[in-house]
Amino acid sequence: VIEKALAVGADSNQFPSNWIFHFREKKPGKAYVD
Length: 34
What we know:
Formamidopyrimidine-DNA glycosylase-like C-terminal domain-containing protein; 1 helix; mainly alpha; 34 residues; Fpg-like_C; globular; 18% helix; 0% strand
């Protein structure tokens, strides 16, 4: 996950659409990548 994040420059817009990474801000304590 870290390597992928660095590979896209930590730009959430470039993460695969099936990742739930961006929902972590709306659900504190439940950050995860599906």
